[in-house]
């Protein structure tokens, strides 16, 4: 006799992940498609015109993009041929204006779009930088993000008072301490209730609720307090884009959103797995980070039109310009190598991922210099998806499934035509499939960028719960703790007692090594008022 059939509850099916879009731009001509500025339809030569940026902001808002990511470097690309000539001739990220000042402009015509702005921490003191970010977080009503970079161009260091840039791993060590300082300024210096604006009592700020941070580290000494009152997010959403082993460790510790660039599923999947692993090692959930892969979309209403468009774009790629870009990214002067030479990996003091993505990151593929230049010529170091809107949606979803990405950091070939095609053709197709956020309605209140990305909360806690931090205790000792929720440390009434009580959960001396994150190494009671 057969066993009675038992009713089973079917396992709940997880809803399919939405596809996220981020727009990759820079306050310059061309950006990631060297040579394309010469195309008659490209508008990027208008980068000095405020309307150029206002139009882009309105377009991305209409398309429901998570954010616009504004890249930046502080030097010229002079590795190729040992001079800036090629960069100047081909407009390879020069001329280049400041990205930060675009933000209030673009924020003034949008309510939801986030801003991931690149600022190199290497050349600026954390105290003044923290104020600039707080100001922008106020002015955008909580939509600012910071792409944390340490730079990769020696030309930047030489112009900013250093003989050469710091060595690769040292830059990340510096960055860890920098983050330590700015977290303290943003999260711990002002309690939530510090600003009273009490006209009848004549008290604007309660001094008992504003604290020094007394940071004394290897590179920085910052007594505090922070100059700004708490902004909607306090800490801007933290973006990062390094995949070397040191870069991954840094990202695992700090990043909430990560950008990766790789030419194939194999390379990108390797990056994604490594980065999620690094988040786990830092005591966070691997899904606490959103990872966006670089990509270019070439689309049109029909497949034939899209293919023709792609052929037309390819005709404007300039190989010498592409090599100028690649040389700057990698620190290798590719003008000295024939186009048919194969690329091997070597450690340089520039960024390491760019070279690795055409060599060691995929051992099954050997790239020649010419192939790599042609590849990055259209859309930089990511794949190019070509087809009608349905074909594009299929490709995006297939990449998401195969790599574990959360979304795409979209480059353009033609400004702003490429993004307009995405917004008008691809976004509606993804929405039809339930794979894209719905259009914002008038009822959708403005949300902070962090809330919009992670679905809850405005503060760092939304993604940093679970991480381990080292606290210096008042008696000079150190204690490694797991943060249950950053709200217990960050601001508010709880902050005054958090150091001794709420935050000291799960002491874990095993991980108390010098490399442990030292997020809140406070050696002062948080209740201490400003002297
Ligand atoms: C998509 C993407 C965008 C980047 N944007 C910038 C940037 O705007 N400015 C900058 O100095 N570095 C930028 N970088 C470089 C990274 O900050 C980092 O230096 C690089 O990825 C190498 O890191 P790694 O050696 O740890 O792999 C970017 C990297 C990627 C992948």
TrEMBL record:
Taxon lineage: Bacteria, Pseudomonadati, Pseudomonadota, Betaproteobacteria, Burkholderiales
SUPFAM superfamilies attached to this UniProt entry: Bacterial luciferase-like
Any one GO molecular-function label of the UniProt entry: oxidoreductase activity, acting on paired donors, with incorporation or reduction of molecular oxygen
Identification of the protein by name: 5,10-methylene tetrahydromethanopterin reductase
InterPro entries: Diverse_substr_monoxygenases, Luciferase-like_dom, Luciferase-like_sf, NTA_MOA
Source species, domain of life: Bacteria
Keyword flag Membrane: no
Transmembrane segment boundaries: none
Alphabetically ordered keywords of this record: Flavoprotein, FMN, Monooxygenase, Oxidoreductase
């Amino acid at each position: 006799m057969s066993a009675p059939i038992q009713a089973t509850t079917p396992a709940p099916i997880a809803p399919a992940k939405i596809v996220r879009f981020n727009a990759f731009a820079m306050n310059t001509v061309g950006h990631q498609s060297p040579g394309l500025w010469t195309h008659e339809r490209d508008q990027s030569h208008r980068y000095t015109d405020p309307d150029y940026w206002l139009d882009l902001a309105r377009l991305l808002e209409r398309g429901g993009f998570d954010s616009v990511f504004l890249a930046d470097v502080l030097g010229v690309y002079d590795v190729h041929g040992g001079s800036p000539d090629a960069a100047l001739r081909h407009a390879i990220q020069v001329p280049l204006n400041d990205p930060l000042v675009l933000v209030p402009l673009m924020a003034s015509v949008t309510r939801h779009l986030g801003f991931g702005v690149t600022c190199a921490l290497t050349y600026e003191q954390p105290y003044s930088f923290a104020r600039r970010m707080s100001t922008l977080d106020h002015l955008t009503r909580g939509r600012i993000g910071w792409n944390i970079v340490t730079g990769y161009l020696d030309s930047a260091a030489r112009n900013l008072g250093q003989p050469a840039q710091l060595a690769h791993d040292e830059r990340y060590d510096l960055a860890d301490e920098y983050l330590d300082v700015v977290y303290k300024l943003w999260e711990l210096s002002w309690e939530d209730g510090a600003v009273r604006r009490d006209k009848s009592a004549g008290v604007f700020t309660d001094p008992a609720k504003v604290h020094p941070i007394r940071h004394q580290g290897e590179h920085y000494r910052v007594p505090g307090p922070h100059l700004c009152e708490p902004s909607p997010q306090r800490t801007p959403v933290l973006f990062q884009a390094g995949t070397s082993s040191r870069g991954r460790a840094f990202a695992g510790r700090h990043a909430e959103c990560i950008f990766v660039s790789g030419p194939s599923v194999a390379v990108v999947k390797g990056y994604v797995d490594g980065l999620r692993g690094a988040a786990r090692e830092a005591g966070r959930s691997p899904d606490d980070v959103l990872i966006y892969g670089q990509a270019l979309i070439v689309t049109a209403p029909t497949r034939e039109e899209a293919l023709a468009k792609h052929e037309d774009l390819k005709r404007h790629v300039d190989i010498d310009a592409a090599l100028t870009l690649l040389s700057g990214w990698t620190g290798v002067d590719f003008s000295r190598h024939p186009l048919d030479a194969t690329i091997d990996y070597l450690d340089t003091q520039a960024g390491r991922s760019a070279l690795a993505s055409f060599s060691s990151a995929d051992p099954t593929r050997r790239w020649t210099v010419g192939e790599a230049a042609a590849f990055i010529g259209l859309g930089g170091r990511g794949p190019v998806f070509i087809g009608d809107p349905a074909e594009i949606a299929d490709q995006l979803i297939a990449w998401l499934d195969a790599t574990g990405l959360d979304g795409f950091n979209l480059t353009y070939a033609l400004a702003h035509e490429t993004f307009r095609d995405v917004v008008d053709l691809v976004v509606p197709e993804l929405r039809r499939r339930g794979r894209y956020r719905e259009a914002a309605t008038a009822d959708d209140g403005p949300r902070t960028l962090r809330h919009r990305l992670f679905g809850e909360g405005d503060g760092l806690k939304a993604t940093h719960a679970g991480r381990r931090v080292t606290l210096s205790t008042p008696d000079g000792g150190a204690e490694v703790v797991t943060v249950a929720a950053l709200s217990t440390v960050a601001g508010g009434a709880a902050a005054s007692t958090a150091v001794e009580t709420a935050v000291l959960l799960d002491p874990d001396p095993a991980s108390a090594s010098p490399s442990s994150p030292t997020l809140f190494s406070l050696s002062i009671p948080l209740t201490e008022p400003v002297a």
